[in-house]
Amino acid sequence: MDAVFWIVLGVVLAVAEIFTATLFVLMFAVGAFAAAGAAALGAPVAVQAVVFAAVSALTVLAARPVIRRHRQSALESGDTAFGIEAIEGSTALVLEQVDSDRGMVKIDGEVWTARAYDATQVLAPGERVQVIQVKGAVALVWRDVATPVELPEAER
């Protein structure tokens, strides 16, 4: 009967993990399944509780550093940035006037919708800008200190 209790507790904790998405509750589910194994082997309730606590604690201690390391951004971990992290901080070329409401820039050969990071800035076509942040499909840009570049006729 004890094994059934631990299995039910493990399943409940595993289902609860679906709603938290932190992987923390799942570690206690692993402890509950280990306690169910101890119960199936005939261990007394006190030993089952110790197995639950020990396995849960060991799982937390072993897994949390790995999870934290993988949740770091590429900039924090020193890895090569990709996706949006690679775009943030890069230089872009203004194709259509960029202000706080609208605009278009070219980032690494791709055309992006852009807005001025500083609502008071109006960026003219041909200016070089720095991508400060990406929100959804919109690049928030800031005027770069470099001189404006003349747009080729094909990009006007």
UniProtKB/TrEMBL annotation:
Q: Where is the NfeD-like C-terminal domain?
A: 85-143
PANTHER family in the record: INNER MEMBRANE PROTEIN YBBJ
What is the protein's membrane topology class? Multi-pass membrane protein
Q: Looking at the record's lineage, which domain of life comes first? A: Bacteria
Please indicate if the UniProt record lists Membrane as a keyword: yes
Instruction: Tell me the keywords, alphabetical order.
Output: Membrane, Transmembrane, Transmembrane helix
Give the transmembrane ranges. Answer: 7-35, 41-63
Q: What is its main location?
A: membrane
Q: What is this protein called?
A: NfeD family protein
Protein's cellular compartments: Membrane
**The species this protein was found in:** Micromonospora fiedleri
Keyword Membrane assigned = yes
